[in-house]
Write a structure and sequence with these properties.
It is built from three helices and 16 strands. By secondary structure, the protein is mainly beta.
Length: 242
């Protein structure tokens, strides 16, 4: 196999802690004016993205845009990141058919295989979060983990530590899942995404979509700590592991 160094070729992203006092568009790219395919019933809109006072809000609401009846919000890093610790503190949006997601991704638009590592809260059941990885477009590694009190009721911490030979997932500081099968661990450097979107076709997975008014996913902090570096903030899972 590839050595860690060559597998992470193109990883330009350095350690960071983002508290969202404002949105730095030299660091974050705001998705605007398109959607990810027929399965998505909303168009990404910069109007649905707000960062102020220590909170990022990604909205979902009825708005005619890009051939869709709804508008939704997403941001993604411009840089690509490699092995290390990825952490978010967020409150999921409420509503069946909606998906509040924190994930890393790279794919064909970047002339790379589709690699991905996910935390997704499906609005049909906010008492749990779904974990998953894709390696060269192959998924099927879903695992559902309980979120005490409900992922949309308050802020919860989600983290994963990605290494060449394992991925560890954490919810509110507790280890909830570990992957050590190398065939199920992505190797390509990826961008980091926060997105809130809906579907009226993925009923089995995301639940039946029904709109009951504007809703939002909120994020208080997102951070990346490169492999081998010390924890950067007191609440980091890395501080507890040291």
């Amino acid at each position: 196999g590839l050595s860690a160094a060559s597998a992470q070729q193109g990883a330009t992203g350095k350690s960071f802690v983002e508290e969202f006092d404002r949105l730095d568009t030299s660091f974050w790219y705001v998705s605007d004016g398109w959607n990810n395919g027929a399965h998505q019933n909303c168009t990404w809109s910069k109007e649905q993205v707000r960062a102020e006072g220590g909170r990022l809000t990604l909205g979902f609401e009825a708005a005619k845009a890009g051939g869709r009846d709804y508008a939704c919000g997403e941001i993604q890093t411009r840089a690509r990141f490699g092995y290390g610790t990825y952490e978010v503190r967020m409150r999921a949006g409420t509503g069946s058919g909606l998906n509040s997601a924190f994930f890393t991704y790279i794919g064909p638009t970047d002339k790379k295989p589709h690699d991905e590592i996910d935390f997704e809260v499906l609005g049909k059941n906010t008492d749990r979060v779904q974990l998953n990885q894709y390696i060269s477009g192959k998924g099927g590694n879903e695992k559902l983990v309980p979120v005490a009190g409900g992922a949309d009721a308050g802020f919860n911490d989600y983290a994963f530590i990605w290494e060449e030979d394992r991925i560890r997932y954490f919810v509110n500081g507790e280890p909830v899942h570990e992957v050590t099968d190398r065939t199920k661990i992505p190797s390509n450097a990826q961008k980091i995404f926060l997105s809130f979107w809906g579907s009226d076709t993925f009923k089995d997975w995301m639940g039946s979509f029904s709109y009951s008014g504007p809703t939002a996913m909120e994020v208080e902090r997102i951070a990346f700590t490169a492999q081998g570096e010390d924890c950067q903030f007191p609440q980091s899972v890395l501080c507890a592991l040291d």
